[in-house]
Amino acid sequence: MDHSKRKDFKAANSAKSSDFHKRSKKSSKKKSRSSHNRNIIRETKFVTLNSTNIQRVKEYFETIAPNLFNLFAQTNNYVLYQFEGKSYDIFLVPTIMSKIVKKLSKNLPLMHAGIHLGYMRPKRTHSGYVRAFFLSYEGGLFIYNFILNNHPELLKQIQTIELNSKGEKSFLYGSNIEFENVISKTANLVKKKLIFVFNQEKQYLGIALLLVKQAGKSKPTEPGQKTWDLHSRSQNFTVSLINLIDAGYYLRRGG
Amino acid sequence: MTDIQYSEKILEIAEKYNYSPFMVKQIMINFPDEYLSVINAFNRIPHETIRVNTLKISPEKLRKLLEKKGFHVRQARFEYAFHVDTSGSRFGLGNTHEYLQGFYYIQSLASMIPVHLLYPEPGDNILDMCAAPGSKTTQIGQYLNQKGLILAVDNKQSRIKSLSSNVKRMGINNCIIFPYDSSRLKPFLKNIFLPDKILLDAPCTGSGIIRVDPSLKKVKNDLNINRMVRIQKKLLKTAIDLLKTGGLLMYSTCSFHYQENEGVIVDALKNNKNIEIIEPNEDFGHPGLVNIDGKKFGIELLKTRRIYPNRDDMDAFFYCLIRKK
Question: Which residues of B are catalytic?
């Protein structure tokens, strides 16, 4: 029997259902208030960095300067923590703070502690996507200051570039760096090695990476047409300085 | 129907200055001798003020950098604060390189006072109960100079992002942030974190910042005031419970309604015999209200402070420094 066609039933039914909705709305409101914070705790985690992720961070540090991670670990001033939630962030927590962070994180949904070093994100490789560590803007500044203040002998091994005002503006807008805007740089920039970017006043702007791409001929116009000139592989490539992160992200990402 | 309860004078002022009659009545209650002057002050455009992040740069150095960009910089009341006139520059204060580097924070002068009066010292444990978006948290960080610990809590998870972003930008390394209802913190902080000082910049109706948000002129009823008062009392009770004996608590709001200010403090004094109001040793603002709207609050309340928009040329604020005995 189709109840929906009966007028009297529909009226009675709708009255009941609206009553029910009112009640359910009330109860859901109450529920959301009481369970809101508990849900956050369940959804997020703030724990010390596991060994796999420590290895990832270590590998990343090697792209800045050899043995940097070990030198850093020797200081014993910081403990690495990871925040697991919608994002996957890595924090450097001062050792003095670490004990309290550990205790608080058992019952409270900690989201930030100490210095934000970077984050774990999927990285595209030849064999697919793998989880990798990426340095944050603050992390870059922290590492540069660490080298500058504690291990100045490493300054020769890290890569830096200085931009003119036009390059600075463009970089802070999130654009890649054009070579014509580079005023000075460390002798030979090497690919896959992090570059610290500064402006003319030696203020830290962010980090970049030298990218070397093989440049092929134009796209094939006909099916079956040869696209790559095998003989020119060693000469035909483009070099660019890509923006990994810059200070402008504070404005672009909000906050 | 609601218009009947307002006198002709109120309605006339409301129409002339584009306020709701309710707000005019509230201003008349809270500023009985100078309400017109207050209404005029609320119509003025506020000064743009910045707080220099002394963790990263000295005020003199920043002043030179900003002047180079065409800003007209004038010393404000604090040595680390400047009034900035941006009319002569093609830049805005929120998008200069110095801003991105965390050399300064755009913050009104009145909102710098609570932390200044609380005076966090290096090594202190500080609890900031309603921290987002982080103006006062980062100011505390500046006072602590990376020594000590700040626990910054805010109920709204959506605002935590901006709090975290500002803490990062200003280079504060000794801060722990999490979203939580501060009034329920007691069981979790017991035996783990005992604050030396607490900042309770309580959520409020924001009636004191009409200059910044003119839409507040049109508030029609006191429902929001009553709701805020309930939250403020709950938060203040938790703050007193959490504070260590001998510790200091700064209660502040950016509202001029006595119910959210003196009313909340009187209630706390009644229910907690172990607290006392401390008179700030610096000359900021004017004594709190003792006799208002037919209510008598007691002379203790003279130790609280109010900022008047007409007398002090700042947003209307309320501060009360409390010590736990």
Answer: 254
